[in-house]
Amino acid sequence: MTPILCLAGFGDDASMFDPLVDQAAGLNLHFHPLNLPGFGAPPLRGQATTLNALAAWLAEQAEARGATTVLAHSVASIIAAIAANRTRSPLTTILSLEGNLTPEDAYFSGSAAQYDSAETFRPAFLSRLDEMAAQDPILARYRQAVAKADPQALWDLGCDADRFSREHSPVALLQAVAHAAYLFNPDNLPDTSRAWLATHTLPRFELPGASHWASVDQPRLLAETAAQALAAA
């Protein structure tokens, strides 16, 4: 059974997919979570943690593991799409879990560009998450993961995601992939992304009631929906 690589979104790590792996039994799916460099894995050496650098890393991981499919969360959807569009990339299928469609989707990652260094961004971002997570265990888990991320990688990736989202069309890159599907709860999307989905064609599968981190709070639903999306590809 070929693996489905799983990539976490901005600042998160592979632990967000642990419940999904547990719920995949009986669905003939093999989810294989990966820690991105700087986010659970050692940071990239000698280069900034950019979308392109992480995409090159992902393409290498896919080739080494014989993988053709990625389940990519949030900003990791851009990383996966860049990797899939590389020459001779083994990746042909992306399941975008509430991935970035429009610049407004970069509401966490894009905030890094408002700060002039990793040293100023990290504490401000963690403080913001502290306020949001006070009554939300899903966000509290996310905050703990972000606190373990490499500060420089966090800022580098956030700034690059902001730049990319303003200069390019994340969804156009996703549409260029041989097989792509969008998995989402409409309640979690900004108005611009909901409007785009209402007027464009992209295979999509809804996750009613799920948070932005569906693999954490609705892992069985996500596993079943991923199976549906792959069957339809």
Q: What does the model show?
A:
There is one protein chain. The protein is α/β, with parallel strands linked by helices and 233 residues long. It is built from ten helices and eight strands. It has helices at residues 18-23, 51-65, 76-84, 118-133, 137-148, 151-167, 170-175, 191-199, 214-217, 219-232; strands at 4-7, 31-34, 36-37, 40-41, 69-73, 93-97, 179-184, 204-206. A six-stranded parallel beta sheet has the order 2-1-5-6-7-8, sandwiched between helices. It has a two-stranded parallel sheet with strand order 3-4. β7, α8 (191-199) and β8 (204-206) form a beta-alpha-beta unit. α2 packs across α3, α4 packs antiparallel against α5 (137-148) and α4 crosses α6. The longest helix is centred in the last third of the chain and has 17 residues, at 151-167.
Summarize the helices and strands and which ones pair or pack.
Elements: E1 4-7, H1 18-23, E2 31-34, E3 36-37, E4 40-41, H2 51-65, E5 69-73, H3 76-84, E6 93-97, H4 118-133, H5 137-148, H6 151-167, H7 170-175, E7 179-184, H8 191-199, E8 204-206, H9 214-217, H10 219-232
Helix pairs in contact: 2-3, 4-5, 4-6
In short:
By secondary structure, the protein is an alpha/beta fold. The chain is built from 10 helices and 8 strands.
Key structural traits:
233 residues, alpha/beta, six-stranded parallel beta sheet, 10 helices, 13% strand, globular
